[in-house]
């Protein structure tokens, strides 16, 4: 199955790789912890903040809905962290704190660059793409797209990055399901292609028994070798998932010309290097950003 797009899937993937660190600061920066702590959330680890910040656009969503939309996180984990989330602070207050956290975090990392003409241009281009993102069947993208736009360029860039990454994430779930990978299987195969060691995925709180059962199911399909590494068939299936994800994520970028997209990529590189260089993001991600998938564009 192919989709008409102005841009090649590898270009769409590059834009995700550049925008993901912009979005992710709100789950790791000290300022984000401070804002969450001021609301009453525990800040000894990032998960109470993560669930509150990421789910707040949905309103007081129950755990079952959040589990379905976050997909790869154990239902027990969602139940645990979401149980008292909206009693601690209602979603409107969380959203306000999240906006302040994103503003403060990026301003702290970017310094004078936050007010630069280049960042303002990047924010305008990213916003144009985000506003073109279709939200049919994309609940997290829709919930974030319904929020008001901020005014400061670095905050606009964060909001655009958030809409676009949730749009991509919603499509990624569809791609996983289209290739018959349940939540645990998706993580096991992600580990199998070398996205991160298996122990890194323990943060998703699946039990050892659930992980082993998923591994056995994938092995029975010829997707994993005995050592847990992806077979040729496993690589082919995971590549198909990622290609479909990139294709499904391409629609918003059709609002930009190839020249606009190239310009945005150039403009994003310095602030992204600032973010990465600040050392607030994990050294290794389970998202598979660095995994090389070979597919025809």
UniProtKB/TrEMBL annotation:
Lineage top rank: taxon: Bacteria
NCBIfam families: SCO6745_fam_HTH (NF047719)
Protein name (record): SalK
